Amino acid sequence: MADAAAVTLHKAAGPSRKKSYANARKRQKIIISIILLVICIIWTLPTLGVLITSFRDRDEVSRSGWWTAGRELSALTFENYKQVLGGKPFSYTNASGDVVTERGDNMMGAFLNSLTVTVPSVIIPILIAAFAAYGFAWLDFPGRKVLFVAIVAILVVPLQIALIPILRDYQRIGLNGTFLGIWMAHTGFGLPLATYLLFNYISTIPRSTLESAFIDGASHFTTFVRLVLPLSVPALASFAIFQFIWVWNDLLVALVFMSGSGEKYQVMTQRLLNMIGTRGQDWHLLTAGAFISLILPLITFFSLQRYFVRGLMAGSVKG
Amino acid sequence: MPEKPLTKDQLSPGQQAMMGILRAAVALFIPLATFAGLYGGFIFLRDSGAPQLIITAVAIVWGVGGVAALYLVVNYLIQKLPSAWEKRITPFLFVGPAIAILTWYLFLPTFRSLYLSFFDKFSRAFVGLENYAYVFTDRTMLTAFVNNVYWLVFGTGFCVVFGLLIALLADRVSFEKTAKSLIFLPMAISFVGAGVIWKFMYAFRPEGTAQIGLLNAVVTMFGSDPVNWLTLRPWNTFFLIAILVWLQTGFAMVILSAAIKQVPSTLLEAARIDGAKELRIVFQIIIPYIKSTIVTVSTTILLLTLKVFDIVFAMTNGLFGTEVLASQQYKQMFKFLHYGRGSAISIVILIAVTPVIWYNLRQFGKREVF
To answer: Could you say which architecture CATH assigns to the domain B131-366?
Structure first.
């Protein structure tokens, strides 16, 4: 469009002017394309390096850079993943012919723990927040406005503020190192945002839609479950994706509230952090471990990209 | 079974009382059974040695189902009440749990942390402002403050500038979608995962051995000595900031790109007809037009950099002068077990976000939602 307008304007100047102008635009576009292409390559290289390294032979990894892997395509292997995933001792023959046995990193166990932590930590706050959002939007009770303003105020309160007091409570009542404890913590830290987002959505449902349900004698509870929840699915989904990525990738909350359970219930980020400590230079294992921890968010990213973007945009102001 | 359903007048007073008790018993039994079931689940999850897959399945069903069951049970109980009471209590079924959790997890902790910050290591003796004096004078803490300012300024600055630049470039090429996906992809990666990725990028080996870290491979290719990036003060903080920029630029780009597309094309065409160069269009039309979006994106990333923890913790554990506030807070809590200082640092972080809280409240006050 812009090109067309500019070209029309320059018609009077004769065909050669017009042509050189079009050429300049074309050249500009090519330069921009190249710059962007270079940026994209730079942005992708770190991840690509890790992906390739995770499939390379352990000796090759320490002998040469991953960018030379093209020469040894046949040497690519799943061994690193086998060793990292399982929790049992893993034996292999090293370059000098000795059999080495090492403990596996039990990434599979950490994966399941992450799943156990994440799924309820996503669904519970959504449920509680949806109830609350409905209450704030459609029910009348004393203190309604003050309470909602309080929620807006704590939207960006940093969760650091809660770590010490809540940890002390947990130690007192025996919730430290339990799944329930960490679900509740993620619920607490995710609720202000969830309530705020869902309120914005639920309060825009037309009053007439709900009133027809009340005329049919439905209670608030029934209306909420049968009518409002299904109508709010888009908002629920975008918050769910944000919270999923947030909880899955969280390290701090897990370190504080799950450390009490020892190694058994470590989540993926904790396990990966341990590996950085103990496997410092075993890049073939570290990269495989890192990739296992990325796989679920990456699948989400590629399969639900539009919702993913929307979710992250909606949830970006979390405290 | 009687042919006709029993009605109240067919029953003797004694039978009526029996029915009442029975009904009350049922009404009590359902919640009690629910609570017992939930408690049993909690004990199972805490103590069981079952295979992990089973634990995962039980935990998810128990956790999600438990919350739903609690709502159903409370609703069931409320409906047993006289209707005047039902009406009064229903709102609290809806907002009560959220309010209770927020009070416990965020509202009260603010005051409890403030209180603890005036006490000693064990939260026993009152020490006045001693912890704050430590926070503002200790050498490591001062490094943390300076570094946090670097994170705030350069982390946010680079994210927004790169985000804007890429959004502007992507707007003008044919592979816009692919390019944006690639830049946005790191958003899905955890800070710890990014830590591994970048530790590998920064990997350092002594001169003479093959460099397996990409950056040192490039450096040595040009004939320089390999650099141990992560111990190189004060630049190492900037190498850590680069990781954040890599992760978060995609976020800035996506939002700014959406805003750029809102700029009316007539405005841009008019400027082009007047012979304005592209650079001038960007600075004098596009940027002023999307100013409020730039402010929002910057604020979001500022909040993130203020609390940055995982990157530092995974990459250097705060060594080599890379400490930041959040990593210091964690260390005070868990390494030195000093709850007073840990709380004081968290209060400092809270004070730093109060302008945003104030702004949010003001914006909310302007909207007429109630």
So the answer is: Orthogonal Bundle (1.10)
